[in-house]
């Protein structure tokens, strides 16, 4: 049995880490979990040890942990912590080719009767192919990968990314038992209303190729 060192750490989210260093197991738990019941801490210990030793995680422990961190009280604290500790780099909504705020406003009128309050809009710092876009509720910001700010990118592809994130604004993540429902039935049905959905999705599949980014 290796020596184990456990400490609570002020992560920007409900994160927990474990690593082996010099024959010791170093564990960091989110300080949001300091008041967690013993049963929840036991589940966290099981999950972390299972991960580092590559063993299967028992469903009961996974469910107990998800239910606790998804509870209203912990979720509210985590949201506040992300706002205070997290950093959001807002670069600019105006790119070389596309202006995200203008696109948001146009889509808002076309599909949402102008009723959605516009969050912060920004292009990402890097031209990511992994994260094409996301809505960050903690900072009320929509971020779109700078890879789309290019003359060879069809406007419908940029509009679709923004429209998708606007749906996250309209349809927040819901909990079903212990699981998070990110794209619910209403979300998916409304996404199909985007006129150039198939064209936009077909273009997104080409991003795995080369030649798009200068």
Description:
The chain is of the alpha/beta class and 214 residues long. Helices cover 40% and strands 18% of the residues. The chain is built from seven helices and eight strands, in the order βββααααβββαββαα. Strands 1-3-2 form a three-stranded mixed sheet, with helices on one face. It has a three-stranded mixed sheet with strand order 4-6-5, covered by helices on one side. The chain has a two-stranded antiparallel ribbon with strand order 7-8. A hairpin with a 2-residue loop joins strand 2 (16-21) and strand 3 (24-30). The radius of gyration is 21 Å and the shape is elongated. It starts with a strand and ends in a 9-residue tail after the last helix.
Secondary structure topology:
Layout: E1 3-9, E2 16-21, E3 24-30, H1 38-52, H2 59-69, H3 72-85, H4 100-112, E4 120-123, E5 133-136, E6 141-144, H5 155-170, E7 174-176, E8 179-181, H6 185-191, H7 197-205
Parallel strand pairs: 1-3, 4-6
Antiparallel strand pairs: 2-3, 5-6, 7-8
Helix pairs in contact: 1-2, 4-5, 5-7
What is this structure, in a nutshell?
With 214 residues, the protein is α/β, with parallel strands linked by helices. It has 7 helices and 8 strands, in the order βββααααβββαββαα.
* Estimated share of beta-strand residues: 15-25%
Ranges where pLDDT stays below 50 over 5 or more residues in a row are 209-214
Mean pLDDT across residues = 87
For the largest beta sheet, what order do the strands appear in spatially? 1-3-2
Number of helices: 7
Structural class: alpha/beta
Principal-axes shape call: elongated
Distance between the termini: 53 Å
Assembly level: single chain
Largest sheet: 3 strands, mixed
Give Rg in angstroms.
21 Å
Number of strands: 8
Helix content: 25-40%
What's the order of the H and E elements? EEEHHHHEEEHEEHH
């Amino acid at each position: 049995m290796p020596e184990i060192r456990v400490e609570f750490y002020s992560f920007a989210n409900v994160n927990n880490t474990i690593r082996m260093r010099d024959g010791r197991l170093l564990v960091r738990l989110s300080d949001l979990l300091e008041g967690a019941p013993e049963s929840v801490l036991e589940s966290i210990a099981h999950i972390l040890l299972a991960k580092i030793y590559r063993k299967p995680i028992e469903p009961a422990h996974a469910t107990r942990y998800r239910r606790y961190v998804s509870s209203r009280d912990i979720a509210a604290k985590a949201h506040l912590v992300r706002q205070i500790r997290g950093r959001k780099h807002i670069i600019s909504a105006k790119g070389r080719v596309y202006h995200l705020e203008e696109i948001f406003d146009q889509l808002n009128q076309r599909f949402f009767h102008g009723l959605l309050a516009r969050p912060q809009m920004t292009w990402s710092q890097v031209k990511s192919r992994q994260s094409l876009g996301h809505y960050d509720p903690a900072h009320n910001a929509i971020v779109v990968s700078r890879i789309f700010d290019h003359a060879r990118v069809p406007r419908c592809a940029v509009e679709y990314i923004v429209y998708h994130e606007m749906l996250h604004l309209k349809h927040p993540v819901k909990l079903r038992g212990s699981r998070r429902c990110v794209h619910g039935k209403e979300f998916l049905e409304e996404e199909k209303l985007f006129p150039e959905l198939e064209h936009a999705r077909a273009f997104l599949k080409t991003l795995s190729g080369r030649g798009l980014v200068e």
